[in-house]
């Protein structure tokens, strides 16, 4: 039966993995203590980060193009589901950092969590660590575990949250490194994005379906929207949305030269539902309205 196992709190997840609960809102979980179990779909109502070795069976699905073989970090936001049902058993391995959103209330990290876009990446877009990077991650885990094992005092929560924030900031740096070291792969994605953009606007899709979204092209390239957006930003210095809008403006400039078409007709051909939205975007990007630009040339 393909039922989803839902973990609603940290204590429940610790019990599932034979780990002691030292704090109801945060835990460093040694997955090696868990009993062998069947593959299942799992859902977590809290932030979950797995530090896995490459060949750990429960999370290996979809992991491709490894940059390093020392370890892999996978990030899940509350409510996400991972895994798939299989009848065979496996022995979990690795370490998990889990923390409930309630831990972050009233902290600076709580206000910044949306900035860590890798929590919305797909499993196949995991962070692959070098040996040195893995040691840094384990050091962050050790500091958190040190605080969990101490008697609680007025500094405990602040130090735990600060170390989680430090860990996440390192992960941002390591993802930047991964985007760079996978430059050949990224250039291929950028080329395919450009090709997909051209194909879209050379077809009837804009007229029939409207303006394309970042999510549309991410799906075409089999990437999550956040990973795709971050990749394009790293490669071009522009957001994916800006990249799309720049393409629209380039195409619009050529179409405006065709005086056989009205500005409204051009707007509809480009996928705008309302011509005034086209005129506003064009003015913001070019400094002239489409009509003014037509008369300049």
Automatic annotation (TrEMBL):
<dbReference type="GO" id="GO:0003700">
    <property type="term" value="F:DNA-binding transcription factor activity"/>
</dbReference>
<protein>
    <submittedName>
        <fullName>Helix-turn-helix domain-containing protein</fullName>
    </submittedName>
</protein>
<keyword id="KW-0238">DNA-binding</keyword>
<dbReference type="InterPro" id="IPR020449">
    <property type="entry name" value="Tscrpt_reg_AraC-type_HTH"/>
</dbReference>
<dbReference type="InterPro" id="IPR018060">
    <property type="entry name" value="HTH_AraC"/>
</dbReference>
<dbReference type="Pfam" id="PF12833">
    <property type="entry name" value="HTH_18"/>
</dbReference>
<dbReference type="GO" id="GO:0043565">
    <property type="term" value="F:sequence-specific DNA binding"/>
</dbReference>
<dbReference type="InterPro" id="IPR009057">
    <property type="entry name" value="Homeodomain-like_sf"/>
</dbReference>
<feature type="domain" description="HTH araC/xylS-type">
    <location>
        <begin position="195"/>
        <end position="296"/>
    </location>
</feature>
<keyword id="KW-0804">Transcription</keyword>
<keyword id="KW-0805">Transcription regulation</keyword>
């Amino acid at each position: 039966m393909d039922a989803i196992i839902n973990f609603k709190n940290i204590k429940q997840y610790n019990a599932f993995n034979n780990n002691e609960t030292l704090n109801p809102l945060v835990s460093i979980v040694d997955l090696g203590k868990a009993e062998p179990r069947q593959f299942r779909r799992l859902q977590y109502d809290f932030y979950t980060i797995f530090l896995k070795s490459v060949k750990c069976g429960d999370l290996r699905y979809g992991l491709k193009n490894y940059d390093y073989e020392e370890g892999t970090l996978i990030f899940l936001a509350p409510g996400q589901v991972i895994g798939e049902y299989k009848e065979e058993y496996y022995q979990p391995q690795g370490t998990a950092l889990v923390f409930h959103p309630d831990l972050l209330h009233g902290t600076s990290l709580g206000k910044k969590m949306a900035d860590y876009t890798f929590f919305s990446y797909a499993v196949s877009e995991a962070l692959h660590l070098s040996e040195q990077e893995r040691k840094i991650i384990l050091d962050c885990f050790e500091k958190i575990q040190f605080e969990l094992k101490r008697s609680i005092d007025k500094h405990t929560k602040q130090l735990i949250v600060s170390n989680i924030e430090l860990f996440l900031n390192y992960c941002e740096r390591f993802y930047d490194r991964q985007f760079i070291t996978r430059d050949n792969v990224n250039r291929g994605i950028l080329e395919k994005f450009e090709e997909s953009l051209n194909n879209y606007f050379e077809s009837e899709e804009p007229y029939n379906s409207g303006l394309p979204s970042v999510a549309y092209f991410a799906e075409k390239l089999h990437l999550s929207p956040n990973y795709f957006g971050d990749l394009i930003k790293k490669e071009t210095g522009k957001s994916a949305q800006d990249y799309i809008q720049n393409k629209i403006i380039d195409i619009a400039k050529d179409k405006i030269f065709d005086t056989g078409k009205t500005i409204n007709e051009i707007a509809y051909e480009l996928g705008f539902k309302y011509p005034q939205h086209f005129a506003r975007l064009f003015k913001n990007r070019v400094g002239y309205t489409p009509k003014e630009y037509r008369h300049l040339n």
